[in-house]
Known about the structure:
Blueprint: H1 4-15, H2 19-25, H3 30-37, H4 47-60, H5 64-74, H6 83-88, H7 102-127, H8 133-161, E1 176-179, E2 182-185, E3 193-195, E4 201-203, H9 204-207, H10 220-241, H11 245-261, H12 268-283, H13 285-295, H14 302-319, H15 325-343, H16 350-371, H17 376-395, H18 398-414, H19 419-430, H20 437-453, H21 457-470, H22 480-483, H23 488-505, H24 511-519, H25 533-549, H26 553-570, H27 573-589, H28 594-598
Antiparallel strand pairs: 1-2, 3-4
Helix pairs in contact: 2-3, 7-8, 10-11, 10-12, 10-14, 11-14, 12-14, 13-14, 14-15, 14-16, 15-16, 16-17, 17-18, 18-19, 18-20, 19-20, 20-21, 20-23, 21-23, 23-24, 23-25, 24-25, 25-26, 25-27, 26-27
Amino acid sequence: xxxxxxxxxxxxxxxxxxxxxxxxxxxxxxxxxxxxxxxxxxxxxxxxxxxxxxxxxxxxxxxxxxxxxxxxxxxxxxxxxxxxxxxxxxxxxxxxxxxxxxxxxxxxxxxxxxxxxxxxxxxxxxxxxxxxxxxxxxxxxxxxxxxxxxxxxxxxxxxxxxxxxxxxxxxxxxxxxxxxxxxxxxxxxxxxxxxxxxxxxxxxxxxxxxxxxxxxxxxxxxxxxxxxxxxxxxxxxxxxxxxxxxxxxxxxxxxxxxxxxxxxxxxxxxxxxxxxxxxxxxxxxxxxxxxxxxxxxxxxxxxxxxxxxxxxxxxxxxxxxxxxxxxxxxxxxxxxxxxxxxxxxxxxxxxxxxxxxxxxxxxxxxxxxxxxxxxxxxxxxxxxxxxxxxxxxxxxxxxxxxxxxxxxxxxxxxxxxxxxxxxxxxxxxxxxxxxxxxxxxxxxxxxxxxxxxxxxxxxxxxxxxxxxxxxxxxxxxxxxxxxxxxxxxxxxxxxxxxxxxxxxxxxxxxxxxxxxxxxxxxxxxxxxxxxxxxxxxxxxxxxxxxxxxxxxxxxxxxxxxxxxxxxxxxxxxxxxxxxxxxxxxxxxxxxxxxxxxxxxxxxx
Length: 604
């Protein structure tokens, strides 16, 4: 299926806009937006439809990377954009200082920005200023660009009418400057930051997609520090405007995904450590803020804390790729009570609090599964996941609810309760063509395992096929609470688990060999794919179990050692218990085998 429709639908959903609201913003009909989201308009887009598609990107895309993906999905060649289309998409035209056409070019562009700014402000007034934070950011971008052009024109005019003082001594900037009669706090350093109306300085990169003229830092630490600066600026921007945090979650998610996509020019281990430290700093940010508030005897306010919690939870999902269970637990437990309290109150902050609380519950459920001993771990996880489902329902975020239902279904599965089938059935009923392919594939893959567990062979096989067919060639544009628990390796794992469960019901068939073949696919996963350690060790444990079923002692021994060592490094009771259970099963198959008996030294 063509990715443009789901990509557009995901952008609209993240912006919190209905079909009617978005149609009003781009001066088109609800049906046109719906047809675009359902890929019912043929490409390449031409005429009026092309103008609508460009206007949609102007409103919904919030970064250069996102805009470039949008154009790729829309089959629009960036090199063929008109000047006004480039401006709408954030590709700011570069005008060389001192060139003969500088004044005429600046004047023409200033007129274009003035018209675009007027159009957006009119749309914002019709919709309501607090409704679309993406639109407010775009208005600020146009306002800043227009101001810069006017200032350049003013400077040129002054140079033409006043003699230039070549030897004027340069004075350091004052701590408080003024712009258009308004005080602006802080310094503006080498054009890297621009001030907002309220005096907050934010990076130019937040408002401009123009390529940087600076060289990329050679070391990962510097590169990640710059990314952290952008993230802190985005948090402050959301705090200042009291905007909904769902859009902030997506912006920060993209920044953190770039941590993984960086190609370190120095030591890869240094990059790994720098990435970990950056994510830990973001994860623990609310903890530090709450401590400072307590020291000043101030109570936490949702306006201040919710954007910071958004950054923390986003970072926690990315940390889930490693072994930071304790750090994540300390962070989430510090502010989850505040989220729960605000989620229970009737206020404009309630949807955001519910959205974040649901994710907090899901994180705590995963941590309980790995840190606690069985069966307490299963019971605690189920309780957290059930609370996550209730919070997700209140947040009215369909994607979050689907993911929460998938988690609760898995929790029921681990406890051997058939209720998991019902949870997956509800999750499947919520899937639409607009649902991210990654999430749809994840639901079908996990459901296959549950159906197989309870002997529903055809249902399981059908879902294995669907998961494979739907899985996207490019994994993108899904929130971190989806990507942290989905992907190529989780799908391979669920496929293998489904075949293992089918083999339990029909051992005479070839399901165990099919499971072995499915799990070995992990060896062909590209090294560039970030795979959570908890999934890698899980796959190894299931490979050990499969080796027992096909009576391959050498493979069992090898995978058992890897699984036990990995579980100890990860600090996961769940993975450790899986490995021990495999050893006990191996003793039944090879009761007198010394090689199996001696493996007990690894866990006794």
